Amino acid sequence: xxxxxxxxxxxxxxxxxxxxAILNAEFAPHQRLVEADICAQFGATRASVRTTLLTLxxxxxxxxxxxxxxxxxxxxxxxxxxxxxxxxxxxxLCARKAAENLTEDGSEELRALRAALETAVSTGDLVxxxxxxxxxxxLLRALSGHEVATxxxxxxxxxxxxxxxxxxxxxxxxxxxxxxxxxxxxxxLAQDPDAAEAATRxxxxxxxxxxxxxx
Length: 215
Known about the structure:
Blueprint: H1 3-10, H2 14-23, E1 32-33, H3 35-42, H4 46-58, E2 62-65, E3 69-72, H5 77-100, H6 104-122, H7 126-144, H8 147-167, H9 173-189, H10 193-214
Antiparallel strand pairs: 1-3, 2-3
Helix pairs in contact: 2-4, 5-7, 5-8, 5-9, 5-10, 6-7, 6-9, 7-8, 9-10
């Protein structure tokens, strides 16, 4: 391996970095993404920034404007609701498949995540709780082994993540959602596909109902 290849591997993935920055509200909706500024902030080349912006535009996180560069795309509550409505079917499928395909290693990961979620709620760590929810989503997708559903969900969840992050900080939300997440985990651990699917559907329908109150 050449030195250039070693350096390339050592550098953090720019697309992941910028995606996380957008999802974590480090960039506001409609904020312009100036190539030179991104290069300076992330220590990246112009070529890598342009590639990243094209990738994130394809994911629906940013929009490219003729002769005006790129900016963070604002996703309305109405669009966020539609995204979660689509996710209901896909995430229910992944939960079902995860229950059907559960391995011993997967069981250990789920139990550890369940304990971490309970700790975050009991200590009032809402930021940590939100991150753990994302970890649970990723783990269920991985356990499902369903590549098409996983690819679709990664794009959809990225687009709706900002609104769901806001929901996580509503008063009393964690106390409501934590048992829903626990029910999903317990159903998968029990290798009960029907219960896993039903628990996932119940949770996401609650998210939709809450989003509608914000519309």
